[in-house]
Each structure stands twice: as structure tokens, then as C-alpha cells.
């Protein structure tokens, strides 16, 4: 006879394993299972063996559902044969969950019915009824019965309240949110999650609710809010030491960062997820995260890192489902990993086999991904072109816009220059279509990054095909499309126009859910069921996407004639382009045809900018003011020569083409040209700086000059400052000097985040504080306020419509990241938020010189000067103090989205008539 203490100890272990499951502690789970079998084997008693099977099945519940199912069946055989309804009922609940995971839904439903019968006459076991109702909700959801899912989740909530189980109530509310989402009831889903957050009584539960709120925010297009929610969830799981949940959240973060064209940050998150999954013993999830990391490494053109990721992933190949096995084999054959011709032949055979497996599995998107690799690896031009055309046709037939675009770009690279423009033109049309479908936040954060190489190829192709007018139109679309989209009247009113559609929302949420389940499906039957459901949903999504594109109101990009009408008569616009390894500039005047000049090699520009950066860095880190002054004096002549060389590269070749009456030079930089201190470029012959010759106006694209200007009822000017650490001693005097000429301004020092909320956007916004740039994750660049950082991601969502000037008196606020468009510089982010103009710095600025600069700049604005002339006056004022090195006076330059501040700057900072002193 088995001692009662052994059975009691096995039951304790069972309950302990339940707690360990919540914590995701794989080593402790393994130890508990070993202990259970150690107790059961010497006993040689059926009940002890059944309890050990129960323990083992519980431990495998989330990691190995098939093995867990076998242990549950063994345990059930004993308890049902010996008519032990309470314990059989508990087992049937878990058994039903496993059956649901494996797609055996009818059996799962029967198991839940049996569980309900077993527990009906067991008052002591009524506490398990909420779990039963939650599992019933899950099963109904997997069956696509979303009304039944919602009813079961509501019943689960009622039972959880009755039995005072906050955790079960939280899970029931989360299930209600999913059911509501699948039914297209967005507001109900949002309310259920908000209630779940209130009910959750533990940090890990609140973290899981935050994860689901993040998913909802993603569907709604609120990507930055989703990132913040995921970060909070990951921190909560870390505090609770739940590694597998931390890893799951990190993987979701990686997906969002990748969508926002931030591959460095996405890869960091994916590798963080890998470590968590490995430690939790979740090999399949680790494999998925490694595949993502490898793809991102290839995006960053870092094949050595991709090889490392794929080598680690290969360790999990044997345990992976067929889909992941095929994807791993495909990525191992990526052309960047096989530089030699012989290696590519072998890789081609491997990726072709993997593609065939995905085709047999019915995974069209993944199949076409590998088909692109087949085309990339093909050494014959004809065969490669044929494969690209095949992928493009299939993608087009199935409305897979991104894949069609990539296939067309690949095709263009295999065609002669005279023919390449045709597929590239179609690819550019698709880029415009995708831009119209993007949520506003994704548009602001990623559009310029994602399409820049495509448009560079297209413009090059047009120029080689002797189509300069088409090249200029493509350039306007490439650099001006986002600003035209942001200027659309409906955009601010409809922050997420696509994602407010209830039918689209429901369909997209359901498609995402089944696509995720398909990747981990463990049986051919289950995959077939899911593929059928996904195919139906895809057809619905494609139709809804097309309908949305027809309905969405967008702003038409102005043509050349409209743009020329917007140009002042005495101006010339220079639209620069980095096209591959070349610099190109188009010259546009108010009359006459545009012209273009190929300026030369990008490498020369990079070299000059790097040398200037090194000079300024040595000044910024001097030990004392005296040492800095001596060094600046010694570097002055070498610095001037570098600025002359930049003038020779970027401006001098254009001088014969500029009209003699020119007074305004409108410059639209591109890529590294945003780092050029344009005002300081030195004419070799005239020995004057560029801003002494012309009024310099910098714009993200010449297109912005012809876009409509929003009317806004603005509030008074707002001055925000904080000395921060290390202290900036001149912040207070800088703000006081500005307030002297801006008597209506409201000043906050030290400023806090709440000071950036207002009933009406300020007419003028000045921020004097520390800036910090995040090179690899630009959305995390920040301005330091007294109670925390203002992230660039937050800036993009500020309401600044009608604000005429935002001045960022801080370090590096005009610096454009290496990967990412101007919207991912702090200056560009404020433009995206609605400001007409920003004044921002290109490098870490000198505190005292900045104070002098700003006092003179605002004094000139208050006197009625335009922004370019006020900046010219401020630069000259700094030089008059003896600070002649461009480090002191050339850091701040303007960036305009609307030309209004230039023409009506007299209104900025002028006191009202009733306040003037005569």
C-alpha cells in the first residue's frame, strides 16, 4: 500500500508545476518532473504513476503539446477507470486545451463537456469552472465561432468573480477582447482590455494585458503607443523573472521595429528574444527569432552576423515544424552568403527545394520570398528575369504589393539601362500606393527610408534613358510624396483612416492570428484547415484594401508648373539627390525648363564631412575655454579650406547656371547632404560665405513650397528650458533674452513633459536643453526635460499645426540618421508634427555662443526680418565676438515645410499694436 505522504507529495508537485509554468522556469520544471518520477517509480502504484504523468504533461503543456497529450492520456486512463470525477474533470480541462492546440477541436469540445459533467457534483472542485469556461472560449475561437467565444468568455468572467479569481477574470476579459476584435467590435475590445488592466492583481498579468493592448494599438496604427506598451510589459516580466514572456514581448518589439525600418533595434530585440526562449527551453520559438535576426542582418548587409544566426538556428532544425525547416534552408541559401559562382549553384538547388516545400504547404507569401532568392541566385540573365516576372505576376494577382515591388526592382537590375525604367516605374507606383495605405505614424517614421533605394534606381534609369523630365517627377515623388501626404486635409482628422474600418480590422486581426498559428501547426490536417481559413481571409483583405485606396482622400503631388508658380522670381531651387555613388542636382527656377548637373562621386563628400566632424569633435572636448580658443584659432585655416572644397563640389559647378538677379537659394538636401553646414560654405573667388551671398532656405523637398498651408488659431509663444546634467549655465539668460523681445511668451524653466500639451499650438516654440541622438534607434532620440525624456517618437505625434517656428536650441537636433529619412531627425520630426519651420543644430553646440546666437536671432525676428536674414544676422553676431571658427556660428540652420514663416516672419514675436511704446 502506497504511503499517503507520497501521494500528497505528488499532488503538491503538480500544484508547484502549475506555478512554475506561470513563471516560465524551464530548469525548475525539469527538476520537478524528475522528482515526481523519482517518487512514483519506487512506489510501483498506478495512482502514483498517473500523478507523475500528470506532472510531466503539465510541464510540457506549452512547449511540446504532442508529448504532453500522451502524458495526459495516461493519467486520464487511471482516473476515469477508477471513477475519480474531480481529478478526471481537472485533467479533461488541460486535455481539451492540448487538443485545441493540435487542431482536434471536436474532441476538445467533447473533453470540455466531460469535464463539466465530472465537476458538476464536486463542490470542492467548483473553483476550476472558470478555467473550463476559458478553455471553452479558446476552442470556440479556434472553430471560428466568435459569438460563442464571447459568450463563453463572459461566463468565465462571471465564474471568476464568483470564485474570487482575479487571474482567471483577467484571462476571461482578454478572451472577450479577442472575440470582440474578431467580430469587428473595436471599442468593446478596447474596453475589455482596459477592464482587464484594472482587474489584474499581479505585475505579470498586467504585463500580458499590456501586450494585448499593444496588439490592438498596432491594428489601430498607433505604433509608438504599441512600442511603449510592449516596453512596459517586458520590464514587468523581467521584474517577475518570467523569461519566456519577456522573449515573446521582445519578438513582438522586433517585428514593430522592423516595420518602422529600424533594423538595428529590431535585431537587438530579436536576439534578446532568442536568449529568453533558449533559457525557457522553447526551441521552436528560438528558431523563429533567429530567422528574424538573420533576415535583419542581411538587410544591414552584415552576412557574417547572418551566418552566426543561421548556424545557431540549425541546432533546432530537427525539432522544427516543416514550415520553419523550409525557411531556414531558404535563408541559408541567401546570395549574400554565397559570393562564389560554385557556391551559388549549390545554394540555388537548396533554396529551390525549400521553395517547393512551401508551395506544397500552401504558403504563398513565404513561397514567393524564396522564389525571389531563386531569382537572385540565378546566374543566367534570362532565367533570372523570367523568375522575377513570375513572382511579380503571382504577387500582383494576390495583391502582395511589397513582394511585387521587390520582384520588379530585382528584374530592373537584370535589364539594360534603357529598359530598366519600366519595371522601376511600376515599382514606384506601388510605393505610392503603400504610402497611401500606411498608418500616419509608420508613414512619418519609415517611408523615406524604405523607398529611397528604389527611387534612386528609377531616377538613374530615367537619366540613362534620356528622360530628365520623368527623372525630376520621380524625384519629387521620392522626396516630396510624404509631405504631400501629410498635407492632405483629411489626414490630421483621420489619424488612422484605414484602420478605423471595422470590417478590415476584424479580418486583419483574424488573418494575423491564423498566420501565426500556421507557422507552428504540427499536423498536415491542421495546416490544411488553417490554410483554407487564411485563403478566405486574404481574399477579403485584398478587396478591402482596394476599397480603402479608392476611398482615402490624398493630396495630389503638385506638378512642375504649379511648383514654378510658387517660387519667388529672384530664387532658384536646388533639389539634390544621392543616386547610388553619385551626387546629382536639379536646378528649378520660376521660369524656364529645369536643368540637372551630375556633381561627382559621393565618396568625396563623405571624406570632407568626416574631416570637418573630426575637427569639431576636438573642439567640443577641450578641457578649458582657453584651450578651445587656441585650438579653434589653429584650426581656422584648415577648416576654411574644407568649407571651400565643399563649395567647389556642391555649389561652384552651378554658378554659371544661376541667374544674376538671384537673392534666394532654396536647397533641398538628401542623405548626407543634410550634414553640410550650408551657411558656412566658402566661395573660393569671392571669399564670402554662402549665407552672405544669398538668403538660404532649406526644405526637405522643393515640393513643399507648393503645398497648401493650414490655417490655425495659435496660442502665445512658448519657451521651454532645462539646464540638465551636466548643467547648461546659459539656458536661463537665453530664455530671458528671448522673452525680452517676445513679451507675450510663456516661459517654463525647468520645463516638464506636461508643458508640451496645449489647447492651441503655440505660435512659436523654443526649447533650450540637452539633446541626445540614438544613431541605431532614431525613434529613441530625445530631448531632456526635467521629469523625463521627450522621445522623437513622441514628437511625431505632437499637435503643432500652424506653429510657425520651432527652435531646438540643443545638440545634434538637425542630424539625420544614417538609416532613415529626415523625419527621423528631431528637426524633421517637429516638421512632421505640423510646424512650418524648425531651427536645429548639426553638432554638439557651444553653450555661450548659442546663447548669443539665439538672442540676436529673436531680436532680428522681432524687428521684422525673415528667418534667413535673422539667421544671417545671428551668425554675424557670433563671429563679431571673435568666435570665427564655423563650429561656433554655423551649427543652426533652418528646415521649412511651409514658406509662410519666410514671407510673414514680421508677425513672429512682434508685440500687438496696443502694447507698442511710442
TrEMBL record:
InterPro entries: CHAT_dom, TPR-like_helical_dom_sf. Transmembrane segments: none annotated. Signal peptide: none annotated. SUPFAM superfamilies: TPR-like. Residues 641-894 form the CHAT domain. It comes from the Bacteria. Pfam families: CHAT. PANTHER family: RAPSYN-RELATED. This is CHAT domain-containing protein. The lineage of its organism: Bacteria, Bacillati, Chloroflexota, Chloroflexia, Chloroflexales.
Amino acid at each position: 500500500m502506497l504511503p499517503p505522504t507520497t501521494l500528497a507529495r505528488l499532488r503538491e508537485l503538480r500544484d508547484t508545476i502549475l506555478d512554475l509554468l506561470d513563471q516560465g522556469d524551464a530548469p525548475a520544471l525539469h527538476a520537478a518532473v524528475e522528482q515526481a518520477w523519482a517518487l512514483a517509480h519506487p512506489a510501483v502504484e498506478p495512482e502514483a504513476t498517473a500523478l507523475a504523468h500528470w506532472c510531466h504533461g503539465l510541464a510540457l503543456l506549452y512547449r511540446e503539446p504532442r508529448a504532453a497529450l500522451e502524458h495526459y492520456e495516461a493519467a486520464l486512463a487511471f482516473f476515469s477507470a477508477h471513477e475519480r470525477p474531480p481529478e478526471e474533470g481537472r485533467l479533461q480541462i488541460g486535455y481539451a486545451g492540448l487538443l485545441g492546440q493540435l487542431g482536434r477541436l471536436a474532441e476538445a469540445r467533447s473533453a470540455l463537456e466531460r469535464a463539466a459533467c465530472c465537476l458538476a457534483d464536486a463542490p470542492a472542485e467548483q473553483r476550476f469552472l472558470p478555467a473550463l469556461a476559458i478553455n471553452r472560449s479558446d476552442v470556440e475561437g479556434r472553430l471560428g465561432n466568435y459569438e460563442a467565444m464571447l459568450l463563453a468568455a463572459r461566463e468565465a468572467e462571471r465564474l471568476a468573480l464568483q470564485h474570487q479569481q482575479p487571474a482567471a477574470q483577467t484571462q476571461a476579459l482578454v478572451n472577450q477582447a479577442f472575440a470582440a476584435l474578431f467580430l469587428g467590435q473595436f471599442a468593446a475590445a478596447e474596453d475589455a482590455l482596459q477592464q482587464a488592466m484594472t482587474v489584474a492583481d499581479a505585475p505579470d498579468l498586467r504585463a500580458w494585458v499590456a501586450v494585448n493592448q499593444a496588439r490592438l494599438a498596432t491594428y489601430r496604427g498607433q505604433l509608438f503607443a504599441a512600442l511603449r506598451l510592449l516596453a512596459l510589459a517586458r520590464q514587468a516580466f523581467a521584474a517577475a523573472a518570467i523569461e519566456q514572456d519577456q522573449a515573446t514581448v521582445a519578438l513582438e518589439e522586433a517585428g514593430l521595429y522592423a516595420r518602422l525600418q529600424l533594423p538595428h533595434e529590431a535585431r537587438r530585440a530579436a536576439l534578446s528574444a532568442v536568449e529568453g526562449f533558449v533559457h525557457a527551453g522553447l526551441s521552436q520559438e528560438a528558431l523563429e527569432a533567429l530567422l528574424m535576426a538573420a533576415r535583419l542582418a542581411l538587410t544591414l548587409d552584415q552576412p557574417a552576423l547572418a551566418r552566426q544566426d543561421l548556424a545557431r538556428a540549425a541546432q533546432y532544425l530537427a525539432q522544427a515544424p516543416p514550415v520553419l525547416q523550409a525557411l531556414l534552408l531558404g535563408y541559408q541559401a541567401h546570395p549574400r552568403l554565397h559570393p562564389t559562382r560554385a557556391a551559388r549553384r549549390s545554394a540555388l538547388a537548396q533554396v529551390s527545394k525549400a521553395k517547393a516545400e512551401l508551395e506544397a504547404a500552401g504558403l504563398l507569401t513565404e513561397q514567393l520570398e524564396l522564389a525571389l532568392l531563386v531569382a537572385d541566385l540565378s546566374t543566367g540573365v534570362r532565367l533570372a528575369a523570367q523568375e522575377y516576372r513570375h513572382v511579380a505576376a503571382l504577387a500582383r494577382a494576390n495583391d502582395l504589393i511589397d513582394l511585387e515591388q521587390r520582384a520588379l526592382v530585382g528584374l530592373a537590375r537584370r535589364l539594360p539601362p534603357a529598359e530598366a525604367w519600366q519595371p522601376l516605374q511600376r515599382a514606384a507606383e506601388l510605393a505610392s500606393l503603400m504610402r497611401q495605405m500606411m498608418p500616419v505614424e509608420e508613414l512619418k517614421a519609415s517611408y523615406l527610408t524604405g523607398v529611397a533605394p528604389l527611387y534612386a534606381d528609377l531616377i538613374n534609369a530615367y537619366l540613362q534613358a534620356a528622360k530628365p523630365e520623368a527623372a525630376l517627377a520621380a524625384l519629387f515623388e521620392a522626396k516630396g510624396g510624404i509631405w504631400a501626404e501629410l498635407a492632405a486635409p483629411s489626414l490630421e482628422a483621420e489619424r488612422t483612416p484605414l484602420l478605423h474600418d471595422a470590417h478590415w480590422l476584424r479580418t486583419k486581426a483574424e488573418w494575423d492570428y491564423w498566420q501565426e498559428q500556421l507557422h507552428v501547426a504540427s499536423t498536415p490536417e491542421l495546416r490544411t484547415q488553417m490554410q483554407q481559413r487564411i485563403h478566405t481571409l486574404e481574399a477579403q483583405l485584398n478587396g478591402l484594401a482596394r476599397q480603402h485606396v479608392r476611398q482615402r482622400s490624398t493630396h495630389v503631388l503638385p506638378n512642375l508648373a504649379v511648383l514654378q508658380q510658387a517660387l519667388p522670381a529672384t530664387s532658384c531651387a536646388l533639389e539634390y539627390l544621392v543616386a547610388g555613388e553619385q551626387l546629382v542636382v536639379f536646378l528649378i527656377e520660376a521660369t524656364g525648363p529645369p536643368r540637372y548637373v551630375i556633381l561627382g562621386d559621393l565618396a568625396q563628400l563623405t571624406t570632407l564631412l568626416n574631416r570637418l566632424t573630426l575637427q569639431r569633435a576636438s573642439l567640443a572636448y577641450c578641457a578649458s575655454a582657453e584651450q578651445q580658443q587656441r585650438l579653434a584659432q589653429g584650426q581656422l585655416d584648415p577648416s576654411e579650406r574644407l568649407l571651400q572644397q565643399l563649395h567647389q563640389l556642391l555649389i561652384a559647378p552651378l554658378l554659371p547656371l544661376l541667374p544674376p538677379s538671384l537673392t534666394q537659394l532654396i536647397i533641398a538636401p538628401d542623405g548626407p547632404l543634410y550634414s553640410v553646414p550650408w551657411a558656412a560654405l566658402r566661395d573660393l573667388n569671392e571669399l564670402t560665405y554662402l549665407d552672405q551671398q544669398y538668403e538660404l532656405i532649406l526644405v526637405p523637398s522643393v515640393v513643399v513650397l507648393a503645398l497648401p498651408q493650414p490655417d490655425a488659431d495659435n496660442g502665445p509663444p512658448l519657451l521651454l528650458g532645462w539646464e540638465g546634467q551636466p548643467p547648461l549655465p546659459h539656458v536661463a539668460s537665453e530664455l530671458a533674452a528671448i522673452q525680452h523681445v517676445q513679451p507675450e511668451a510663456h516661459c517654463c524653466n525647468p520645463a516638464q513633459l506636461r508643458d508640451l500639451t496645449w489647447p492651441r499650438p503655440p505660435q512659436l516654440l523654443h526649447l533650450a536643453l540637452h539633446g541626445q541622438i540614438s544613431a541605431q534607434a532614431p525613434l529613441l532620440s530625445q530631448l531632456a526635460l526635467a521629469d523625463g525624456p521627450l522621445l522623437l517618437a513622441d514628437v511625431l505625434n505632437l499637435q503643432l499645426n500652424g506653429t510657425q517656428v520651432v527652435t531646438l536650441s540643443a545638440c545634434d537636433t538637425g542630424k539625420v540618421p544614417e538609416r532613415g529619412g529626415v523625419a527621423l531627425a528631431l528637426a524633421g520630426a517637429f516638421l512632421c508634427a505640423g510646424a512650418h519651420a524648425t531651427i536645429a543644430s548639426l553638432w554638439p553646440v557651444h553653450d555661450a555662443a548659442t546663447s548669443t546666437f539665439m538672442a540676436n536671432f529673436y531680436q532680428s525676428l522681432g524687428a521684422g526680418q525673415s528667418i534667413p536674414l535673422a539667421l544671417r544676422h545671428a551668425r554675424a553676431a557670433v563671429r563679431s565676438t571673435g568666435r570665427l571658427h564655423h563650429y561656433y556660428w554655423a551649427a543652426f540652420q533652418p528646415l521649412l515645410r511651409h514658406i509662410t514663416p519666410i514671407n510673414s516672419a514680421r508677425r513672429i514675436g512682434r508685440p500687438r499694436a496696443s502694447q507698442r511704446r511710442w
